[in-house]
Specification:
With about 200 residues, the chain is an all-alpha fold. It has 2 domains: about 80 residues; about 120 residues, Leucine-rich Repeat Variant (Alpha Horseshoe), CATH 1.25.10. Helix 6 packs antiparallel against helix 7. The protein is elongated, with a radius of gyration of 19 Å.
Length: about 200
């Protein structure tokens, strides 16, 4: 298993023939071991992101039974650009596995543009049970910079320390009195990293 995974991963670091792309795509969808499927998908995304076989393998991976593979699908989505459907990533933000949801939220920060994406990320940033996922959603909202995401970022400024730090950094994409008020408040946060982030932004 590990040998197959290593071989698949190594294939992503060289130019692939059409037959090799097809073989990797088959491995990404049909290998019995999730770690091998994930490695093959990663190799495809690196070496052949524009191939139709890669797109098909990615969509299959996003619906894979294993969270290991679904997470890898989310992680490599930005390499595929619009071929990795934004709506699929939005669905992965609601995945039952927090690591999958976390990776999907971060990916949406790089490729997300739709208003529905911002709405889903805003709900995730304020309502998700896992702080790691809330933090990723806040980061994505900051990266997208849509004003519709600002209320969720401001709300996150009252979350756990790691989420508050991310929220303060996300405020860099926005302007206005509400933003300035939050930054001023963050200068007195009990967490020194939150204070540092606010100081850096106000310089």
């Amino acid at each position: 298993m590990l040998d197959r995974a290593a071989a698949a991963a190594a294939a992503g670091h060289r130019k692939l023939t059409a037959d090799e792309v097809a073989a990797l795509a088959a491995q990404a969808t049909a290998d019995p071991e999730p770690v091998v499927r994930a490695a093959a998908l990663g190799a495809l995304a690196r070496a052949a992101p524009a191939a139709a076989a890669t797109t098909a393998a990615w969509h299959a991976a996003a619906a894979d039974a294993s969270p290991v593979v679904r997470r890898r699908a989310a992680e490599v989505a930005p390499r595929l650009g619009p071929r990795a459907g934004e709506e699929v990533l939005v669905s992965l933000v609601a995945d039952t596995d927090a690591w999958v949801a976390d990776a999907a939220a971060f990916a949406l920060g790089e490729v997300g543009t739709a208003s529905e994406t911002v709405a889903v990320l805003a709900r995730t940033a304020t309502e998700h049970a896992d702080a790691l996922v809330r933090e990723a959603a806040v980061a994505a909202l900051g990266a997208i910079g849509d004003p519709a995401g600002l209320p969720a970022i401001l709300h996150a400024c009252d979350d756990k320390p790691a989420v508050r730090r991310r929220a303060v950094l996300a405020l860099a994409a926005f302007e206005g009195e509400a933003v300035e008020a939050r930054l001023r408040a963050a200068l007195h946060d009990r967490d020194w990293q939150v204070r540092q982030a606010a100081e850096d932004l106000r310089r």
